[in-house]
Every structure is written in structure tokens, then in C-alpha cells.
Design brief:
This protein is α+β, with helices and mostly antiparallel strands. 31% of the residues lie in helices and 12% in strands. The strands form 3 sheets. Strands 1-2-6-3 form a 4-stranded antiparallel β-sheet, sandwiched between helices. A two-stranded antiparallel ribbon has the order 4-5.
Length: 352
């Protein structure tokens, strides 16, 4: 099995949009809890592939009119297709006599803390989480933009990733960084959660690959609150159910885990969200890190997937972050949907 045979199968039969390969040597120096070797000591090659996010699935959130398409075709539904592709590529590898170890995308486990005592006697750590984005960079798929989102030359920020470890020694792809992101930082301006730091950065170094790059010091707690729809500025569903609650994003100091737990605790209380899914879903629309970045890269012709029309020339919409009325006016926001006049005039401007 050659690298080209594997790539031809992945692209032409399975239908992935991009695929790259890194030798395990590029991961030298990775912490044990992020190292492919911790998962599979015999790994020789790390395979990363991408399935594109349909550009139009962002249109409903950009207009503030339709959320399900974004959830299905950019998150849960697309993730299932990534898993299916991972399985089929894995079968192809194992049909050729090599081991295939799939590593599906995982949450920010590091912030959860240890799930048990520190393993004694030099044993491996728990909850190993290989970073798909770092692996994608080392496999030559693209680069990490200032926002910490992976940017590929084909689609910019529009893709979801799959990762496979194998003991097959495959021809690697060259690492390519510093060609797509021009540090415009429009992602900073348009992130509704104020989660992307405009100045403070983190340097990621891969000594085994001889490369390093810088991206922002992402405020993952604010990102998670906004992603789960707890940001009033971009979540009309939250405003409808909790019209008097004020959660200014710039003042929040929560961790990713706290945001995750808060979102799960409130999810079933919001009728629209509960109708979408059985568990918390993507609500923010990736307004800065994907939509604005995508639009910028397309206009500057810095990516290959170019369309006949710009995605948008409008400024991102925002709802008032601070409640316009208190309990004495909204009384739990009870209203008759058949009678528009039943909505108190004092809060019509806050109704979306």
C-alpha cells in the first residue's frame, strides 16, 4: 500500500476532500497526554483527512433565520460522515495488513483535570487527546490561523477533520505554514464571545518537524458559552426563554468545562434547542472564526474554493447584550403567539 493508493481511495471512493500524511517523527516532543505514541506505540504514520463544510449552511445563521442546517451540515451530521470515512479508510488500511487506529475528535479534556490518581511507575496518563488541528498542520493539510481554527488552501476554515494512526510507513506530505492567514484579525472583531485575543498569542512548536507557529490565546470558556447559545448577543432562543438574565461575555472568567456544564444544565430549558437535538448543539454560527474569516479569504483570493458571489457584505447582526426590561415588565415572557399585541410594547424591541 502506497501513500498515493491510500489517497486515491480516500478521495475517489470514500469522498474526502483533502488528506495528508505525517511521519511519527514530527510529533517528537509532544506531551504524553497528546502524543500519538501514547495511543499506539507502534505508530509510523499519522493520517489526517478533511471533509468540507458546505458554505451555504452558514447562511441561515448569518441572516438570523435558520439554525438546523448549521448544526447538521457543519457539526453533528458532518461529524458522522467523518466517522464513516474514518471507518472505511481504516478498513482499506487493514485490508493491506497494517493496523488502523482511529482517533475521533474529542473535547478539551485537559481542562477537566485528572479522572483518577496519577498513574504510578511511569505508566501512561489517562484521557489522551491527540490534537487534530496540530496533526493536520504536521500532515501538510494547512495551517492554524490566528483564531486557532485550521485553514486549508482549498476551503480556508471550512472543514472537519478525521485522524488515523497506522504502523504503515507511508510517504509524508510537506508541512506548509504561513501562506493563508494574513493576520487581518477580523476573527477578533467579529467573534461575539470576545474569545479571540487580539494581541496575546501562544507559540506552538513541533521540534520533530522543525516548525513553529503562533496563534491567539483563545478564551475557551467564553468560546464555549457562546457556542452553546448562552450569549444573548447571538442567541435569540436564549433571550426568549431568559429575557432578564445578563451574562456579559467580556466579564466571564469561566473555564471550558464550566461553560460545557452550564450549557448542559440549561439546554432542556430552551424549547428551540430541545427541538433541535437531544444534547447541546452549535448555536454561535462561528461568526468570527469561520464566517468572517471565510469571507475575507475568499475576497482576497487566498483560498481555492471561490464562488460567484461574496458570502455577505453585511455587518454581523447582534441582539442587545443587556436586558432592556426587568421582571416587572416581562413576567417570564408569557405571551400569546396568535396575538402580537399580547407582547408588552416595552419589550418588542428586545424580541427577535
Amino acid at each position: 500500500m502506497t501513500s498515493q493508493e491510500l489517497k486515491d481511495f480516500a478521495k475517489n471512493v470514500v469522498g474526502v476532500d483533502a488528506i495528508g500524511i505525517a511521519p511519527i517523527s514530527r510529533f517528537e516532543g509532544a506531551p504524553e497526554y497528546m502524543s500519538p505514541r501514547t495511543v499506539f506505540p507502534g505508530v509510523k504514520s499519522v493520517i489526517v483527512f478533511a471533509r468540507r463544510i458546505i458554505r451555504g449552511c452558514y447562511r441561515g445563521i448569518e441572516r438570523g433565520t435558520h439554525w438546523p442546517s448549521y448544526q447538521v451540515f457543519a457539526y453533528s451530521g458532518l461529524t458522522k460522515l467523518v466517522h464513516q470515512a474514518n471507518y472505511r479508510i481504516g478498513r482499506f488500511i487493514e485490508d493491506h495488513g497494517f493496523l488502523s487506529v482511529p482517533c475521533p475528535p474529542a473535547a478539551t479534556l485537559k481542562e477537566a483535570g485528572p479522572r483518577g490518581p496519577v498513574p504510578p511507575g511511569g505508566k501512561y496518563p489517562r484521557d489522551v487527546n491527540v490534537s487534530l488541528r496540530i496533526a493536520a498542520v504536521l500532515a501538510g493539510l494547512g495551517e492554524m490561523g490566528w483564531s486557532k481554527v485550521l485553514l486549508t488552501p482549498q476551503f480556508g476554515p471550512r472543514q472537519r477533520l478525521g485522524l488515523i494512526l497506522t504502523d504503515a510507513e507511508l510517504e509524508p506530505d510537506p508541512v506548509r505554514i504561513g501562506r493563508i492567514c494574513d493576520r487581518c484579525k477580523i476573527c477578533v472583531r467579529d467573534c461575539p464571545g470576545n474569545a479571540i485575543d487580539p494581541k496575546k498569542g501562544n507559540t506552538i512548536t513541533a521540534p520533530g518537524a522543525g516548525v513553529s507557529w503562533e496563534c491567539n490565546d483563545l478564551k475557551v470558556g467564553k468560546c464555549k458559552l457562546t457556542h452553546f447559545g448562552l450569549n444573548r448577543a447571538t442567541s435569540p432562543h436564549f433571550v426568549k426563554t431568559f429575557p432578564g438574565i445578563y451574562l456579559p461575555m467580556e466579564e466571564q472568567g469561566n473555564t471550558w468545562v464550566e461553560g460545557w456544564n452550564f450549557g448542559h444544565a440549561l439546554f432542556n430549558a430552551v424549547p428551540t434547542w430541545k427541538a433541535f437535538s437531544a444534547y447541546p448543539i452549535a448555536i454561535c454560527g462561528a461568526r468570527g472564526c469561520i464566517i468572517s474569516c471565510m469571507n475575507h479569504l475568499e475576497k482576497r483570493r487566498r483560498i481555492k474554493n471561490i464562488f460567484r458571489h461574496d458570502f455577505t457584505n453585511e455587518k454581523p447582526w447582534r441582539l442587545p447584550e443587556k436586558p432592556l426590561v426587568g421582571h416587572d415588565d416581562h413576567h417570564g415572557f408569557v405571551y400569546d403567539p396568535e396575538d402580537p399585541e399580547s407582547v408588552p410594547s416595552s419589550i418588542k424591541s428586545d424580541w427577535y
